Amino acid sequence: MRITCPLCGERDRREFYYKGHALELNRPTPDAGEEAWDAYVYTRENPAGETRDLWYHEGGCGAWVVVTRNTVTHEVLATELARGVRR
Questions:
Q1: FRET partner for 80 with CA separation of 20 to 30 A, picked from 2, 12, 28, 56?
Q2: Once rounded to an integer, what is the mean pLDDT over residues 5-16?
């Protein structure tokens, strides 16, 4: 898979570190209980189709990049710097 870094251009996926969904996760309160914390730490959606993920350009410029991609076809649809993303 090739990912286009907005600062460095197209690069191999091995230069990037996958961090997870680019959505804000709702962190439980410290006293929320074991089930809430277990779900927060270990349970993630694994959708088939279009996703927005956060990647770190570890082998390059060090930028955080939001990658919109299709998990079925592995096609990268768009990339943008994470600091420019609005919710």
A1: 28
A2: 96
CA angle 20, 3, 64 (to 5 degrees): 50
Contact 13, 2 (CB under 8 A): yes
Whether 6 contacts 17, CB under 8 Å = no
CB 16 within 8 A of CB 55: yes
Is pTM beyond 0.85? Reply is no
Q: How far is CA 41 from CA 3, 24, 25, 38, 66, in A?
A: 27, 13, 10, 5, 21
Number of DSSP helices (H) and strands (E) in the chain, helices first: 1, 6
- pLDDT tens per residue across span 23-46: 666 789 999 999 999 988 888 777
Q: Return d(Cα 51, Cα 67) in angstroms, integer.
A: 8
Quote the CA–CA distance of 87 and 80 in Å, as a whole number.
13
